[in-house]
């Protein structure tokens, strides 16, 4: 009795492991796939890069109209008021930055963040960091502007950046190709290197 | 021979990236590509044919820079760091010699005439060209070495 029940258990176990092997296959990205992602990374970075030029320093004037639109159309309650009391604090005109007290320093922060995303993704240096920063910036654009454009415009940008967080696309045709193996080697002795190696 | 072949392939790959960067611009796609024909004294209008010719010229120039890259490296195995730095150096050389000096000569301006926005718009793209050239060469070199071991 016990022998037959044990044999039945073994059969069930074998069937279960066959089922697991059949339904869950380990996925490894091929060289072609990761190289394809490297090209996608460069052009997503280029997308961010091109957007630097209509809001150049020192005035960042191109950004002003968009911040006003965001403050009027945000999909999260309170986000418009937050913009009013930070970016738009003291502003007296809807078309020019006259009177604004915080607009230039905050706009400089946005511009530098977008520059970092562009450099990170185009050059493939700490690509995942750039992709995380890009996701946050794109999410912010989605919150503020989703209903002023085609609803998926900024949503697609969020998704593209999130895909580049998931896949370390800088490890081919980017600086991370050289950087990551060195950081991984140092990760055994340094916690900083271990953290940085994930971002590369 | 492997070195030259790898250099050409890496250069064509990097040239393709740079040409596509020049194609995907705000406004009319590829509108800046005929200007590259002007650098070499080729008369061109702003039509589709000129844009296509400009695109192909950038890819070919990439291949030529790839040959230069492999000549600089010599015949031996090159480390990843050296490959990357040589690529960046050649990317900078492209920007300085072609995008700045040759462009200014073609449009009859002083040799180093430029602006902050122009530098910001062109230099990073040429440096990306250099990174792709250097890293693609490194990958191809490793693949060639593995094939020889087999």
SSE layout and pairings?
The complex is a heterodimer of chains A (200) and B (150).
Chain A: H1 2-23, H2 31-50, H3 61-73, H4 79-85, H5 103-123, H6 127-145, H7 152-166, H8 176-186, H9 191-199
Chain B: H1 2-23, H2 33-39, H3 48-73, H4 80-106, H5 116-149
Can you describe what's shown?
The complex is a heterodimer of chains A (200) and B (150). Chain A is mainly alpha-helical and 200 residues long. Chain A has a domain at 32-169. Helices cover 68% and strands 0% of the residues of chain A. Chain A contains 9 helices and no strands. Chain A has helices at residues 2-23, 31-50, 61-73, 79-85, 103-123, 127-145, 152-166, 176-186, 191-199. Chain A is elongated. With 150 residues, chain B is mainly alpha-helical. Chain B has one domain. The longest helix of chain B is centred in the last third of the chain and has 34 residues, at 116-149. The two termini of chain B are 18 Å apart. In chain B, 38% of the residues are buried. The model of chain B has no long low-confidence stretch (mean pLDDT 93). The chains are: A mainly alpha (200), B mainly alpha (150).
Number of domains of chain B: 1
- Runs of chain B with pLDDT <50, length 5+? none
Count every beta strand of chain B, where a strand is a DSSP E run of 2 or more residues: 0
Mean pLDDT of chain A: 92
Number of helices of chain A: 9
Q: Tell me the number of strands of chain A.
A: 0
How would you state the average pLDDT of chain B, rounded?
A: 93
Tell me roughly what share of residues is in helical segments of chain A.
Answer: 55-70%
Distance between the termini of chain B: 18 Å
Shape of chain B: elongated
Query: Greatest chain-chain interface?
Result: A-B, 20 and 22 residues
What class do helices, strands and sheet pairing of chain A give? Answer: mainly alpha
| Major beta sheet summary of chain B | none
Based on the structure, what is the oligomeric state of the protein chains? heterodimer
Topology as H/E string of chain B? HHHHH
Q: What's the end-to-end separation of chain A, in Å? A: 58 Å
Query: What structural category arises from helix and sheet content of chain B?
Result: mainly alpha
* Overall 3D shape of chain A: elongated
Largest sheet of chain A: none
Rg of Cα set of chain A: 24 Å
- Number of helical segments with 4 or more residues of chain B: 5
């Amino acid at each position: 009795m016990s022998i037959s029940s044990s044999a039945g258990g073994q059969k069930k176990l074998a069937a279960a492991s066959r089922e697991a092997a059949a339904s869950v296959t380990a996925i490894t990205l091929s060289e072609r796939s990761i190289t394809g992602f490297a090209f996608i990374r460069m052009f997503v970075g280029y997308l961010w890069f091109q957007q630097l030029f209509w809001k150049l320093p020192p005035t960042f004037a191109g950004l002003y109209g968009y911040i006003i639109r965001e403050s009027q159309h945000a999909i999260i309650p309170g986000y418009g008021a937050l913009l009013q009391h930070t970016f738009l604090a003291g502003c007296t005109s809807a078309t020019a930055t006259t009177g604004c007290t915080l607009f230039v320093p905050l706009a400089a922060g946005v511009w530098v963040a977008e520059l970092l995303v562009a450099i990170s993704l185009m050059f493939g240096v700490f690509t995942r960091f750039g992709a995380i920063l890009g996701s946050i910036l794109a999410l912010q654009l989605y919150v503020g502007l989703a209903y002023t454009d085609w609803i998926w415009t900024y949503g697609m940008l969020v998704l593209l950046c999130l895909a580049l967080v998931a896949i370390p696309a800088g490890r081919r045709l980017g600086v991370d190709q050289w950087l990551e193996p060195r950081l991984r080697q140092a990760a055994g002795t340094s916690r900083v290197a271990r953290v940085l190696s994930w971002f590369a | 021979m492997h070195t030259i072949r790898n250099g050409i392939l890496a250069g064509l790959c990097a040239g393709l990236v740079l040409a596509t960067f020049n194609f995907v611009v705000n406004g009319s796609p590829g509108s800046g590509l005929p200007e590259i024909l002007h650098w070499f004294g080729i008369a061109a209008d702003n039509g589709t044919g000129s844009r296509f010719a400009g695109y192909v010229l950038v890819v070919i120039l990439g291949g030529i820079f790839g040959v230069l890259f492999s000549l600089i490296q010599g015949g031996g195995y090159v480390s990843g760091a050296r490959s990357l730095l040589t690529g960046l150096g050649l990317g900078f050389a492209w920007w300085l010699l072609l995008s700045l000096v040759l462009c200014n000569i073609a449009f009859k301006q002083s040799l180093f005439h430029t602006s902050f926005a122009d530098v910001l718009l062109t230099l990073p793209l040429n440096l990306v060209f250099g990174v792709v050239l250097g890293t693609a060469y490194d990958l191809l070199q490793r693949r060639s070495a593995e094939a020889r071991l087999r």
